[in-house]
Design brief:
With about 325 residues, this protein is an alpha+beta fold. About 45% of the residues lie in helices and about 10% in strands. It has two domains: about 250 residues, no CATH class; about 55 residues, no CATH class. It is built from 14 helices and six strands. Helix 7 packs antiparallel against helix 8, helix 10 packs parallel to helix 12 and helix 11 packs across helix 12. The protein starts with a helix and ends with a strand.
């Protein structure tokens, strides 16, 4: 998930020293926000787990968006399968064996399958068909379920919305995968070495504190508090978008900053029409290409929503224990 991570943190590094003060003359709009709760459930093995339940994802209709439905299918699809979909709209068509897709691709004959799929679904000739491999092998939430409660505690203690902790964990390290990215991002929160060091973590040939969950969570929380949220606010103010930091859409925008880098998000917001306010801003970013803001960056908040919905689905059969309203942020 880190195709642009080198560029992302290079841009982020450049803006760390920038002045993040608000731009004068812009109006910040308060809103009702998104009511949440800390829900605790008990698994069949009697272990309990807690997570941040976010009803407004469904209440605001995000779960009905084709982009979200697409990613929900991808993260729940086995790795031996490939989902044929319309590139421009994420319309899901059918599932092919991944071996077939890979074989045709290796022989330079994948267009024949695209044409066949277009005919099968009565699509205009030349419709761009994409084949997306299943990611269920990676999005195995068993590995992160027991960590969510601790992540929520760490972020809350540092004055950072636990929504960010949960979202990043469900996207970046849902299973037990401890692989280091090609660019060097590592740990549950996929921090780059210089970012971890900038927040006091030791990363050298002998010790890598990104392996320490609490230390890694601490650094990620500070990154979001000191860079991602302030710059999401600043770009909204600079380009004429109303600010509502309690709204789900704003939190998704800050997540884009975490993934792509604030400078990259700025490039995208600069070309988004000013009429695309609130939720529409995020939905427009999904289809906006500017600078390094492209495929992976576009997809990040889509994945955040899809992963949350799939995780909630995975724990829904567990026994309900308790729920406590969480409206601190």
């Amino acid at each position: 998930m880190r195709l642009h991570i080198i560029k992302r943190y290079a841009v982020l590094g450049l803006i760390l020293a920038c002045n993040s003060s608000a731009v004068p003359g812009r109006k910040e709009v308060a809103g009702a926000g998104c009511d949440r709760e800390i829900r605790t459930v008990q698994r069949p093995d009697k272990a309990t787990l807690s997570y941040l339940r976010i009803p407004c994802i469904a209440n605001e209709g995000w779960d009905t968006m084709p982009e979200i439905q697409f990613w929900r299918r991808v993260v729940s699809l086995s790795e031996d399968s490939s989902l044929a979909n319309v590139d421009a709209t994420r319309r899901m068509l059918c599932v092919y064996p991944k071996k077939l897709v890979d074989s045709l691709d290796a022989k330079g004959r994948l267009d024949s399958l695209r044409n066949q799929t277009c005919r099968r679904f009565n699509l205009p000739e030349g419709t761009r068909i994409r084949f997306t491999g299943g990611k269920k092998w990676f999005y195995n939430y068993e590995g992160v379920s027991m960590k969510l409660h601790r992540a929520i505690e760490v972020f809350d203690s540092l004055g950072v919305d636990p929504f960010y902790a949960q979202s990043v964990l469900l996207i970046e390290s849902p299973g037990t995968n401890k692989a280091k990215s090609i660019a060097g991002a590592y740990g549950n929160f996929q921090l780059m070495p210089f970012v971890a060091r900038s927040y006091g973590l030791r990363v050298d040939a002998y010790i890598d504190e990104r392996e320490n969950f609490d230390r890694s969570a601490y650094a990620a929380a500070r990154l979001i508090r000191e860079i991602c949220v302030p710059y999401a606010r600043r770009w909204c103010q600079e380009y004429g978008f109303a600010v509502d930091e309690k709204a789900l859409w704003f939190k998704l925008l800050a997540l884009h900053c975490y993934n792509a880098g604030s400078g990259t998000v700025k490039q995208a917001m600069a070309v988004v029409p000013r009429t695309a306010q609130g939720n529409t801003l995020i939905k427009t970013l999904w289809h906006t290409s500017a600078g390094y803001f492209r495929s992976e960056a576009q997809n990040y908040s889509q994945l955040a929503l899809a992963c949350y919905l799939e995780y909630e689905k995975s724990v829904s059969p567990h026994t309900f224990v308790s729920a406590k309203v969480y409206n601190k942020f």
